[in-house]
Structures are given as structure tokens and as C-alpha cells.
Design a protein that fits this description.
The chain has 154 residues and is an all-alpha fold. The protein folds into two domains: 60 residues; 67 residues, no CATH class. It is built from five helices and two strands, in the order H-E-E-H-H-H-H.
Length: 154
């Protein structure tokens, strides 16, 4: 597992370097009293590279006997999160972001988070409805529509 951590840290550093270089080429300086178009991506890339370097140093200095998952429970938790995230992607493609986010939150909160029914129902409905209002109404940014989603009403 240590080799995987080191390779992942190197991948993060390479990705961060790529983002920073491209943002620098776009213009990452402060221009005429405001940030250039690449200012924030550049610094995000720098911070991501710093995080990758910290992970790399920590893994190189760690003793060889260290394991990432102490038992099967940790592996199962990561598997559940990955499976629900993959399900969210598939549902977004099929039925659109609005409906998929309701189903995703419902499944995640109830069956993985083990929250009580009132909280599950409230959050599963309020978060997507608020997101819809903010993105589609206020910011006028269209959320992804699925191939089987009903026509837009409203």
C-alpha cells in the first residue's frame, strides 16, 4: 500500500504542476486592480502541490509496517462511499442531476450515515431544491439533465 500512496502523491504533484503552469500561461498575476483569469487556479495548483509534497514526505519517512486500512471495516466504508458516488454519476446521466441528487442523498444519509428518517427526508429534499434555486434561478446556470428526465417545467 505504501507504493500506492507514493505513486498517488507523485500523481497529485504532477497534476498540480500542470494546473499551475497552464494557469500561469493564462495570466496568474494581479492586473489593473483585479485578479487575472489564472490567479485562483494557479494558487490552487500550488496548494495542491504542497499537499502532495506533504503526503510524499510523510509516506517516504513512514515505517514499512504501516497499513492504510487496519481492518475490513475501513475498506468497506470506502467501498460504500465509492459505490454511492458511482451510482450518483450513473443516475445523473440517466435521470438528471436534480432527481439523482435527491436519491443519492436519501440513500447516503439513511443507509450509510444511518441518520433518522425526519433528517433524511428533510435534507434529501431541501438540499437539492435549494441548489436548484441557487443555480438555475439566481445564477442561471443549467444543471445537467438526464436522457430520461421529464421536460423542464417552470
Amino acid at each position: 500500500m505504501r507504493r500506492g500512496q507514493i505513486l498517488m502523491a507523485l500523481g497529485i504533484i504532477a497534476f498540480a504542476a500542470s494546473v499551475s503552469v497552464q494557469a500561469y500561461q493564462v495570466g496568474s498575476r494581479w492586473v489593473e486592480g483585479q485578479a487575472g483569469p489564472g490567479f485562483f487556479p494557479f494558487w490552487l495548483g500550488v496548494l495542491l502541490g504542497l499537499c502532495g509534497a506533504i503526503i510524499l514526505v510523510r509516506e517516504v519517512r513512514a515505517p514499512n509496517g504501516k497499513t492504510f486500512f487496519h481492518d475490513r471495516t475501513g475498506l468497506m466504508s470506502v467501498g460504500k462511499v465509492a459505490a454511492t458516488a458511482a451510482g450518483m454519476l450513473l443516475l445523473t446521466y440517466l435521470i438528471g442531476f436534480r432527481t439523482a441528487s435527491i436519491i443519492y442523498l436519501f440513500v447516503y444519509l439513511r443507509f450509510i450515515g444511518k441518520h433518522r428518517w425526519p433528517a433524511v427526508i428533510a435534507m434529501s429534499l431541501l438540499i437539492p431544491i435549494t441548489g436548484f434555486y441557487i443555480f438555475e434561478r439566481v445564477l442561471q446556470v443549467g444543471l445537467p439533465r438526464g436522457i430520461f428526465e421529464l421536460p423542464y417545467i417552470g
